[in-house]
Amino acid sequence: MSRELVIAAAQLGPIARSESRETVVERLLALLHQADAQGAELVVYPELALTTFFPRWSLDDQNEVDSFFEREMPNAATRPLFDEAKKLRVGFSLGYAELTSDEHHYDTQILVERDGSVAGKFRKVHIPGHEKNEAWRKFQHLERRYFEPGPEGFQVWRAFGGIVGMAICNDRRWPETYRVMGLQGAELILIGYNTPLHYAPDPSQNVLQGFHNHLVMQAGAYQNGTWVVGVAKGGCEEGVDSLAQSAIIAPSGQIVAQCRSEGDEVAIARCDLDMCKSYKSTLFDFERYRMPEYYQRITEQRGAVEPD
Ligand code: CDV
Questions:
Q1: Neighbours of 9 (CB within 10 A)
Q2: 112 - beta bridge partners?
């Protein structure tokens, strides 16, 4: 059986606050059809792909907050995407805000196989931003008010003929994200993101957003011998410019496909999952070369402990 998988990074441009889920799903379907026409077997959509990026606003009414969340998946709005993908026998990964039946709020991404079954669900672990309204900012980043960290951590699933993991946006900046999945044999890591170009705590980082985005994902791919697909919701959304530059990255760390625009666009690559072996069995042969006895601090402490 072939271990080659044609993957589409299905980047989205901005979603207006007034845009309905039904309209967004039409856009997702258009991307699905473009990807299918180019032979894609897996289409990867961004983080929070069904609505505008609502953490930029301080919302006091919990009902209003909850209006951005999905209580079930699929639901009436997303059913056409599930049905069409299954009909085409194309799998997909979709990010959305999840409100569970016991009232937990997660930033979630699911992996749907080509037969329509849900192969995996990931809930964002690293929740960036702040909890309270900070009036000095041009816009808010209140993820820490609206989301809890996912309790399951970083899992992988056997799907699409390989071993697949997921991460969401800020997770991609942390080496532990990739390593924990690498230690479970990950061959493909799917990452959706919403990254404002303006970083209020330190605007000197603004011009480096594109560099940092690719830096972390290319390093994560190479150091773990895995494919990485990073997909943006980019462009100017409700007055906030966000990074695009969605990319498909090989286990060599090389970008093999990249979106050129800041809008709805697919970037496609034929990904040979067997290429992971070249790295996993040589330079990054974990069993042979890792030295976990020297890595205890990584799980035993959170912040840096400086010498006296
Ligand atoms: N959605 C995100 O997680 N965004 C963060 C921003 C706040 C830095 C990111 O890491 O891109």
A1: 30
A2: 92, 118
- Domain spans, the chain: 4-300
d(CA 66, CA 108): 14
The reply to whether ligand 1 has any atom less than 6 angstroms from the CB of 128 is: yes
Q: Which two tokens stand for residue 226?
A: 């895995």
Per-residue pLDDT tens digits for 53-111? 999 999 999 999 999 999 999 999 999 999 999 999 999 999 999 999 999 999 999 99
DSSP designation for 279: H
Q: Whose CA is nearest to atom 1 of ligand 1?
A: 194
User: What length is written for the chain?
Assistant: 308
CA distances for 200 relative to 37, 130, 135, 193, angstroms: 41, 11, 12, 18
In this prediction the pTM is 0.98
Residue 277: Cβ within 10 Å count: 14
Residue whose CA is at the smallest distance from ligand 1 atom 3: 170
4-300 is a CATH 3.60.110.10 domain: yes
